[in-house]
Structure formats: C-alpha cells, structure tokens
Amino acid sequence: MVSDVESVQGSARGPGEVAGDALRVTLELSNKSAKQLPSNLALVNLYYGAGSTPATSLSGPGSKAFPRTVAAGASASGRFVFNVPKASQGQIEVEFSYSTEAPTVIFKGSR
C-alpha cells in the first residue's frame, strides 16, 4: 500500500543522478502469510503525467529500502525518491513487485 507521497527536493549522490524536483513515496508491505517473505529483491517504479513518463530514481533525501525479509504476520516500510517535475506531480502511478512469482501491483492516483 502507498502510505505517503511527499514533494521533496531530490538530492543526487549516485552516478548519473540529477538533483531537482522529486517525489518521495512510502510503501507499506504487509506479510499476511505464515512464512517469512523475502523483500530484498523488491522493485519500485514511478510513472507520472498523462503519458505515464518513467521517473528516474534518486538516492535521497530519506530513501530507505525494504528490509531483506518481512516476518510472518509483520509489516515493513520503504521510502523511494524519484525525479518528477513539479508541474507533473499531480498524476502518478507506482509500480511494485517483490518477486517474479508474485503479480506486479500498480497504484494509480492523484496527489
């Protein structure tokens, strides 16, 4: 579930990153199964605007990956930052997948 979307000034710390207007998205992952859930391979993508333009990920501010695993019955959160021009931050899609065996989930909405 998407629990928060914040407009932030993205910071560039990694190779190829460009600082600028950004969105920080917080996702909550709930493991309702009886087994430990691996989440170290989780993928999060963000698309914006009417044309679903792919956003570039940034390393900050405040990024936090999911933990390697989520215990049975537990929840975990992750924060992900993406370059998104201010004028295009109204309409977004967040794509989430944690396994090749599980379906990809797409959250669509306006900010």
Could you please describe the fold and organization of this structure?
The chain is an all-beta fold and 111 residues long. It has a single domain, classed as Immunoglobulin-like, CATH 2.60.40. It has no helices and ten strands. A four-stranded antiparallel β-sheet has the order 1-2-8-6, with no helix packed on it. A four-stranded antiparallel β-sheet has the order 5-4-9-10, with no helix packed on it. A hairpin with a 7-residue loop joins strand 9 and strand 10. The mean pLDDT is 94.
Q: Any descriptors?
A:
four-stranded antiparallel sheet, 10 strands, about 0% helix, mainly beta, Immunoglobulin-like, single chain, about 110 residues
Shape verdict: globular
User: How do the SSEs run, as a string of H and E?
Assistant: EEEEEEEEEE
Given the structure, what is the number of helices? 0
Q: Kindly report how far apart the N and C termini lie.
A: 15 Å
CATH architecture field: Sandwich
Uncertain spans: none
State the helicity in percent bands: under 10%
- CATH topology (level 3) name: Immunoglobulin-like
DSSP strand content:
over 45%
Number of strands: 10
For the biggest β-sheet, the strand order reads: 1-2-8-6
The class by helix and strand makeup works out as mainly beta
Radius of gyration using CA atoms only: 14 Å
Task: Give a quick precis of the structure.
This protein is mostly beta strands and 111 residues long.
